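--- STAGE predict ---
source: upstream dedup step, 1 unique chain passed
mode: sequence only
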Amino acid sequence: MTQEPTAKIFVFAGTRKGGFIFSSDEGREEWHMSDIHFKGWNVMHMILDSRDNRLHAAVVHDVYGPSTHFSDDFGSSWMQAQHSPIFLKDSISGRPLGTPSEVKDPESTKKTPEEVNKVWNITPGRIDEPGVLFAGIEPGALFRSEDRGETWTLNEGLYNHPHRKDWFPGAGGLGLHTIILDPTNKQRMYIAVSTGGCYRTEDGGNSWQARNKNVRADFLPEKFPEFGQCVHKMVLHPNRPQVLYQQNHCGVYRSDNAGDDWIDIGEGKLPSRFGFPIAVHPHDPETIYVVLEESDDYRLSVDGQFAIWRSNNSGDSWNRITTGLPERAHLVVLREALAVDNLLDAGIYVGTSTGQIFYSRDNGDSWGLLADFLPPVLSVEAAVIHDHRL
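--- STAGE serialize ---
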């Protein structure tokens, strides 16, 4: 008799002092926590590539700097990339790759290339693009790998964009933190930069156009500029690839036309315009989740009650969910620290800057504590593996 495959659920948490891997069965009642990975390092992001079950990690150390690593045994051992994302100098001209070719000052060809401060995000390529991954870095640039994360090359189309010189760092730095691949159009993808805004390519990354119409930038003299908005996180559901959602420094927005313009879905419906993470339900493209903070000035839970806001109608209305979440808690959730699994009753996972991970087994209706006393949580990702051998 053939044994039916069973699902194993993994939650990957990156923190300021290392990474942790939590695992459970489909019930998600009891969780096993791994030993710490990359002890003492900032683990910006850990994500499992479902195409080959290779686990990727973006890490940075105060002394040793940033690097990317991968594991083919769910973190039991790690290999550092042969070439992590880095700005290289052109071997012929001596000019840093990514700078404009029409350099008028000959001395500029002698300058040191920009430094990669950290890798914010690693995103696997499409299902029919084996080996392809993307990495978003600080300061504001995109890299691509075609060998499963072993080497990385700069996307010069974005690096050379005329807007880039005018992007400026948010409080967390000039981070390219969001990478979204259109599942139906191989030439289309999106990135988001804090602070630069949303950009879209229609030619596979050779050229990029700002897509920020109707998105506020209250911190700039012009409130609705072409670019310069501070996108905090952006998501898309593969069943509705024309629809995008974003949590912004200045509100929550939806685009129904691939980013050509945006609709404010928080004004008058949510108690705050400020928050970092946003996620979309794995099976319902109209259900989205955000975590809010009181304001840009007071980055604490709204009214001192930690809560998740959920909309089941693409942001037309919102419900505040607090069941199982702590009262009188002043918590912060960073942009990469909200994730979902793809079980039928979806699991929702959220990590805090004070070291808690809360989770829901019922699409966000009620919540429990998965882990406590971790270092500040920088990122959370979830994966479901349907394989009885695990």
